[in-house]
Amino acid sequence: MELSDMKLREEICDVCHKMWQLGWVAANDGNISVKLADGTFLTTPTGISKSFITPEKLVHIDGEGKILEAEEGYRPSSEIKMHLRCYKEREDVGAVVHAHPPAATGYAVAHKALDEYSMIETVVALGSIPVTPYGTPSTYEVPEAIAPYLGIHDAVLLMNHGALTVGADLFTAYYRMETLELFAKISLNAHLLGGAVEISRENIERLIEMRKDYKVTGRHPGYKKYNQE
Fold first, then answer.
1. Which domains does the chain have, with CATH numbers?
2. CA–CA separation, 88 vs 102, rounded Å?
3. Is the overall model pTM greater than 0.85, yes or no?
4. Which tens digits make up the pLDDT trace of 119-129?
């Protein structure tokens, strides 16, 4: 059953408010987009704090980023190019979330991938999280930088920038951002305690197999260490 336009707008606003409350965005940071049944998109406008987003402020755009409907003075973020590239590369993607969660973004600015298979929930839900090459925000450098990673990753760290997650729907994309940030916090704590201990190859394979039971539909990159054996 498809969500009504207003219901979907309200859900986008709910996620925006949650991101702000969690401290994942400040000032005008971050953006969200959702694909509609007709192939057009709803997206957050530029220049507005996610704490102040209301349903009527969302912008309706086409696949080229052109405005189809918006209140006067509102336009999509210049980072919409990054979102549209996600939809182009992945037909299964129905929503994109971009934010600057502090722990995960710390890994992004340190140029450190979250590629340890050390936490059960992350292995099942996300797999490894790479750092994509640097790209100047608002340019086509960012879409080009992330494109090679989108085929097998549902979450990526944007070098010196933030994080990006995709999902079949809005809440899946949002939950993946939650999982990413929690994993970053746990990994940082494990590092302070001497380093994370990775799960055994046998158990990783069992966890990956469980993805079907949890209806995880996204791709999952192979475990890099045993793939090299």
1. 5-219 (3.40.225.10)
2. 28
3. yes
4. 999 999 998 89
